[in-house]
Amino acid sequence: MMSLQRIRKNSTKKIQTLVNKGQGIIFHKKTSRMIEDSIDSDHSVAVAADVMAWLADPKNYEDARIWLDGNELRVGGQYYFQDSFYIYFNKEDFEGELNRLDELDGIKRPVQVEASTLMTKNSNVVYLTDYVKAMKVGKTL
């Protein structure tokens, strides 16, 4: 039987230790669409530094809740419509969740693109899709 354990948000050393033990992190970004009165959820792969930076932000820290549930740590707001990180301690659980999210609406995974592969052999034309991929990983052309 799994137990749900709440972790105090001011236990930064414990949180940092748990986040570092994670095999994978998925960030769920929530966006309110006022016109349609709905919530959009965008998913992306994150790293431990993202979790700790999010928690260090005073506006996030105020509403932050940290829950440990078996092989998963959740760091996020207290409501379902607030941003949250899911840290998986089991690689298979992490990969399974990535596959599930891929099937639902796609997940933004880190993309490694070399600038030299973006141009054709005798041209200075850069394909728009390659340019967008490069910009997502912070490379300049």
From TrEMBL:
It comes from the Bacteria. This is Uncharacterized protein.
